[in-house]
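My current task is to audit a protein record that another person submitted. Alongside the sequence sits a line of tokens, each denoting a local backbone shape. Please read both lines and tell me whether the tokens look consistent with the sequence. Do not assume that whoever made the record got everything right. Thanks in advance; the entry in question is below.
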Amino acid sequence: MVSPSAKEVFIQGITKDGRTFRPSDWAERLAGVMCSFRPGGPQPGSHLSYSPWCVPTVVNGIKCVVVSSELREAEVMAWDFVMNFARDNELQVAEACLVPDVPPPALPRK
């Protein structure tokens, strides 16, 4: 169960019994289905990119889909769809926060 205060949820490509979920492109497929759900609603060409609210990624070698709570606020049925997908396929779900990559500070010149 996901707490209402969670900002992001990671749906992991590992089942509750530890097996790798198949097919191998499941994360891209799920995120592709959700591409129309985005800030401002669907736009021309939005089917060509992932929604910022549902993004496939890899964390520690495990395929995941990061789902933002903003999806739940904008369209609860879309949120329910992805959460039911995870539940129906017995995928592990974790509340977390994706930390953006920050470049290391520049070294001082001598």
Notes: The chain has a mean pLDDT of 87.
